[in-house]
Amino acid sequence: MASTGIDLTPACWRKSSFSNGTGGECVEVADGVTGLVPVRDSKRAHGPAVIVTAAAWGRFVGALKAGGLAG
Do 35 and 53 form a contact (C-beta atoms < 8 A)? Predict the structure, then answer.
């Protein structure tokens, strides 16, 4: 796995409000990384994280809220 050089050790991870306690699709995002949003699978907390810009994350969440990303 390629390293981004970004230290996520102090990141404060929070689980999506759509995640549940029965092993459902659990997504976590981290706060405190200026200009970036790390995203990971909460079931693999020590696994890799996808890191996107805060602007891209904002557009993604906005599209979800507007129903613009059909499954």
Answer: yes
> CA 39, CA 27: separation in Å to the nearest integer?
7
In sequence order, the 6+-apart residues with CB closer than 8 A to the CB of 69 are: 60, 63
Q: Phi and psi of 46, rounded to 5°?
A: -100, 5
Note whether 8 and 16 are within 8 A (CB): no
DSSP state of 18: T
pLDDT of 13-28, one tens digit each? 998 776 666 666 788 9
> Which tokens in the block code for residue 52?
């996107």
Tell me if residue 37 falls in helix, strand or coil. Answer: strand
CA distance linking residue 60 with residue 63, whole number of Å = 5
Entry pTM: 0.74
